[in-house]
């Protein structure tokens, strides 16, 4: 009885062939005659030999790994995107590795982009330096994008999605509408703010009052304190926030201070993370197809690794989800 892990030489001895022949049966069976192939396959069964995937990857100059660079792993927005990636990558033989660009130093992050570390990168952080990524492994951008960096992008039309959200608030009768934006310099922040401004201008309404934010719960709470500090006659009657997490923070603070949503202010989010349908009131928002974004990004990367160099965009549709946090203003302006 063997006590060591079976090796390729054990298979070769049992089948009465060379180790090179065993390798050919494993990697290119059609070039080996049927009888020899049968002997080798029988010997593989008897010894319990398992090919070394790492060694096979090495021969093909593959690591078998794909790295997703995520701007903030604590943000629940990314969970379904990563699940979508894994659902496509695992059956294709790739391990999904995840790195948080906020907690790891820029230098260590870019080491993941070396071909010896990963076969490809899916980048969800638009603030990474394009010049550092250009010379490295195949890259696909998802959700965010890096201006001037030519790579396939899987995203939504953020400007159009913001217009959809603000049109809903205007349709309810709101005339003073505020926007809580995302982090400064972020491509999503700029696109969603542009859509907000465009929608209001198209209806001849005043430009939005803009509160600073960074996609976090806490920044939504802080925006609510600024909104509450305004004279009641100047408070926007509706607020569109550039992420659901900020909308949750905003609603929590407003209710903590004794006001009601949507009676005193309508609140509109962006993303449709799982939590928001369970809140009281449940949040009206823009639903991003997060799992589909992850799946499409993984498919594009696999194609990229195989040599498809098309840098075109995949733009996925969003959906306006109406719940209890938006309603007509209590009284006309």
What are its keywords?
single chain, 333 residues, alpha/beta, 434 Repressor (Amino-terminal Domain), Rossmann fold, 6-stranded parallel sheet, 4-stranded parallel sheet, 12 helices, 40% helix, 14% strand
Provide an overview of this structure.
With 333 residues, the chain is an alpha/beta fold. It folds into three domains: 8-51, lambda repressor-like DNA-binding domains (434 Repressor (Amino-terminal Domain)), CATH 1.10.260.40; 65-156 and 290-316, Response regulator (Rossmann fold, 3-Layer(aba) Sandwich); 158-288, Response regulator (Rossmann fold, 3-Layer(aba) Sandwich), CATH 3.40.50. It is 40% helix and 14% strand. The protein has helices at residues 8-15, 19-27, 34-47, 53-59, 78-89, 106-111, 130-134, 158-171, 187-202, 217-229, 244-256, 290-305; strands at 65-70, 95-100, 120-123, 139-142, 153-155, 177-180, 209-211, 238-241, 266-268, 285-287, 313-315, 319-321. The protein has a six-stranded parallel beta sheet, with helices on one face. The protein has a four-stranded parallel beta sheet with strand order 7-6-8-9, with helices on both faces. Helix 1 packs across helix 2 (19-27), helix 1 packs across helix 3 (34-47) and helix 10 (217-229) crosses helix 11. The chain is elongated, with a radius of gyration of 27 Å. The model has no long low-confidence stretch (mean pLDDT 90).
């Amino acid at each position: 009885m063997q006590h060591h892990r079976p090796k390729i030489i054990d298979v070769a001895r049992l089948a009465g062939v060379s180790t090179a022949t065993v390798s050919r049966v494993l990697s290119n069976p059609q070039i080996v005659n049927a009888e020899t192939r049968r002997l080798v396959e029988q010997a593989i069964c008897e010894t319990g030999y398992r090919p070394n995937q790492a060694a096979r990857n090495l021969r093909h100059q593959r690591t078998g790994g794909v790295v997703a660079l995520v701007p903030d792993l604590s943000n629940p927005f990314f969970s379904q995107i990563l699940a979508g990636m894994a659902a496509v990558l695992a059956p294709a033989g790739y391990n999904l590795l995840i790195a948080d660009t906020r907690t790891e130093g820029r230098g260590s992050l870019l080491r993941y982009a070396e071909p010896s570390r990963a076969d490809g990168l899916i980048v969800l952080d638009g603030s990474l330096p394009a010049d550092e990524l250009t010379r490295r492994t195949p890259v696909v951008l998802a959700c965010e994008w890096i201006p001037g960096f030519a790579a396939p992008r899987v995203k939504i039309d953020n400007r159009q999605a913001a217009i959809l959200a603000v049109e809903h608030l205007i349709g309810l009768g709101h005339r003073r509408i505020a926007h809580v934006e995302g982090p400064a310099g972020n491509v999503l922040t700029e696109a969603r703010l542009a859509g907000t401004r465009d929608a209001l201008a198209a209806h001849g309404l005043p430009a939005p009052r803009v509160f600073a934010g960074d996609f976090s719960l806490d920044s939504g709470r802080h925006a609510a304190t600024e909104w509450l500090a305004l004279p009641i006659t100047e408070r926007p009657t509706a607020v569109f926030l550039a992420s659901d997490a900020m909308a949750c923070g905003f609603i929590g603070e407003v209710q903590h201070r004794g006001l009601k949503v949507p009676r005193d202010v309508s609140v509109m989010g962006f993303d449709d993370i799982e939590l928001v349908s369970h809140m009281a009131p449940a949040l009206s928002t823009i639903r991003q197809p997060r799992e589909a974004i992850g799946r499409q990004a993984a498919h594009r990367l696999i194609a990229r690794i195989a040599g498809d160099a098309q840098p075109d965009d995949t733009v996925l549709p969003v959906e306006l989800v109406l719940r209890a946090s938006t309603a007509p203003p209590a009284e006309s302006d």
